[in-house]
Amino acid sequence: MAALYLTEQGSKLRKTSQRLVVEKGGTTLLEVPASGIDRVLIFGAVQLSTQVISFLLDSGIDVSFLSMGGRLKGKLIPVESKNVFLRLAQYDRYKDEEFKLMIAKSIIEAKMTNQRTLILRYQRNHHEADLSHELEIISNSISSVPEKNNIEALMGLEGVSSAAYFRCFSRMLSIDFAFDKRTRHPPLDPTNALLSLGYVLVGNEIGALIESAGFDPFIGFVHGIRYGRQSLPLDLGGGVPASCGGWACHDRDQ
Fold it and tell me: Which of 8, 50, 52, 194 has a C-alpha 20 to 30 A away from that of 226?
């Protein structure tokens, strides 16, 4: 299955027979089989016909509306899953501090392990790059996970690990991509802009899968609960590194 990205300003999405059609000024820009799409992402000023809105809802196709800069503004989603028992179980688990700590350890350790693995893979092909100091920091953070007894301490470890990872990241990019450190609101270079957009798109994908399975996306086990924030996709997506390079300062002003 695929996602349909609509970025042409002033265009319109409509449905004809079993196909989705993108038009602008009487000209057809794109025509795809409706059966091959499982989500639609709309950037900026793109219109949807009433017919296509009804079809998307009936088909369970998630629609996300984003600004041209990639900020998620809202979603058009079908009626919430009828599996209330699943959500009740999720709420019960949220109140279980031991369970939350276990899940947080698993997620954060997996993220840091993936960071280390990616750096090691890069180093195998670039022997001239000495990233041993950062690798040691990440490895020490991973080994410290079992001894932590609260989520705040775990997130502190993740912040240290991600800061080391992004120091490596700046050296792993090609010369065509400038990157000094992770910045946002606004991102200060093209690389940071691409990272921010990527995080939005990945988070949107995970959020859609969570909702389709019947979970409440606002109940997170690592990020907790904050008004208006979908925390569970942040948990499962590994968080969105902020200017400090880690979970610990993620999304605090959103």
Answer: 194
Residues of the chain scoring pLDDT < 70 = 1, 79-82, 238-254
Encoding tokens for residue 191?
A: 């690389």
Q: Are residues 133 and 67 in the same domain?
A: no
Place of tokens 């088909």: 59
Burial per residue of 89-122, b for 16 or more beta-carbon CB atoms within 10 angstroms, e otherwise: eeeeebeeeeebbebbbebbbebbeebbeebeee
- For 68-89, how does the pLDDT look when each residue is reduced to its tens digit (9 = 90+)? 877 778 888 776 666 789 999 9
Residue 254 within any structural domain of the chain: no
Tokens, residue 159: 């912040």
Predicted structure pTM score: 0.70
Q: What share of the chain is helix, strand, coil (3-state, %, to 5)?
A: 50, 15, 35
Q: Which of 115, 121, 155 is nearest to 246 (CA)?
A: 155
